[in-house]
Structure formats: structure tokens, C-alpha cells
Amino acid sequence: MKKQLLFKILTVGDGYVGKTTLLRRYVEGLFYEAHNITIGVDFFLKQLIFDSFEISLQLWDFGGQEQFRFILKKYIGGAAGALLLCDLSDPSTIDSVEEWVNLVRSNDNNLPIILVGTKLDLVNLDSIDDEIAFNNMVKFRMSAYIKISSKTGTNIDDLFNLLVKQILRRNKSKLMSNISI
């Protein structure tokens, strides 16, 4: 019998960086060209088998507009990891990385965070420079930087597999002693 685990994953970033689109692509396998903005918080659930574990990912989709940020602190407790998204075709979206890191780490200073460059299919000359993204990753102690495209599906599964590996590694001692995470 496989051990069952539940991980709460936060998905954050400025408005219109592609949070909901990423989660829909990962959970449903579909790309939606347009949808309504997320007001406050939305949820997705993904079941997967990983090594010897049956894992349920509870994916929290946080609205990125500034007027919703004050309520988000209420919902971050118990997170196992986070994805911080920035839009590769809009360099201004990397400017708020520190604010998002501080928010998601307000309850856990060592929460694993992956910096995610979205909309890889739209990259142009105005795109976020890899060096700037990497420097932000290092400065704010994020565990990785990965570029994805929800439209083409590029690196979507790799992104979530990487985050799950990091969470399992971080919680290895709890898993070995059969304590629930």
C-alpha cells in the first residue's frame, strides 16, 4: 500500500502572469486563451503517484491584483511549497518578487519556492533577462528557476515534479517516522 500525502501548494505572482492558466493546464491538460481574473483565492486538486507515494496536490491560486493581497496572509498557513510566477514577456512582473516571497514565507521562512517564468511561447526582445531572474532566485533563496509555456505545455510536468521532489526531500525525516505532513 502506498503512503498517502497531501501537499498545499501556493501559486502567486502579479495579475495576468498566468497562474490560473498554468494550473488549468496541469490539472485539466487544457489551455484556455482567456478567462476571468481570480478574485481572492481559487483551488485546484491534482492526484499523482510519485515514487512510493499517492500524493494529492492542493493547488491554491491567489489573485495577483494588489487589492486582493491583504486577504492572502490568512490562507498561506500549512503550505508545503510555492510557485512564484512572472511573465517572461512583461519584465515589470519580476519587480514584485520580494513582496511575494515575503508574503508566502511569513509563516515559514524556509518554504520551498520555485521562480517560474511563464509565457515562454511569447518571449521577445523585451523578455525578462535570465541573469536577472537567476539573481532574484539566489537573492531570495528560491530553490530553482524554470521557464514554462502553458500554451504548449513546455516544462509543466517538470515544474511540478521538481517541486514535489523538493517537498519530499525537505520532509524526509517526517516521512521516515510516519508522521503526517
CATH topology (fold) name: Rossmann fold
- Overall shape: it is globular
Task: Examine the secondary-structure arrangement and name the CATH architecture.
Answer: 3-Layer(aba) Sandwich
The CATH homologous superfamily: P-loop containing nucleotide triphosphate hydrolases
Spatial order of the strands forming the largest sheet: 2-3-1-4-5-6
The level of helicity is: 25-40%
Task: Give the class from helix and strand content and strand pairing.
Answer: alpha/beta
Order of helices and strands: EHEEHEHEHEHH
What percent of residues are in strands?
Answer: 25-35%
Number of domains: 1
Helix segment count?
A: 6
Task: Please describe what this structure looks like.
The chain has a single domain, classed as P-loop containing nucleotide triphosphate hydrolases (Rossmann fold). The longest helix is centred in the last third of the chain and has 15 residues. It has 181 residues and is an alpha/beta fold. A 6-stranded mixed beta sheet has the order 2-3-1-4-5-6, sandwiched between helices. 29% of the residues lie in helices and 26% in strands.
Question: What's this model, at a glance?
Answer:
Helices cover 29% and strands 26% of the residues. It is an alpha/beta fold and 181 residues long. It has a single domain (3-176), classed as P-loop containing nucleotide triphosphate hydrolases (Rossmann fold), CATH 3.40.50.300.
Helix/strand layout:
Layout: E1 3-12, H1 19-28, E2 41-50, E3 53-62, H2 69-72, E4 81-87, H3 97-104, E5 113-118, H4 130-139, E6 144-147, H5 156-170, H6 172-176
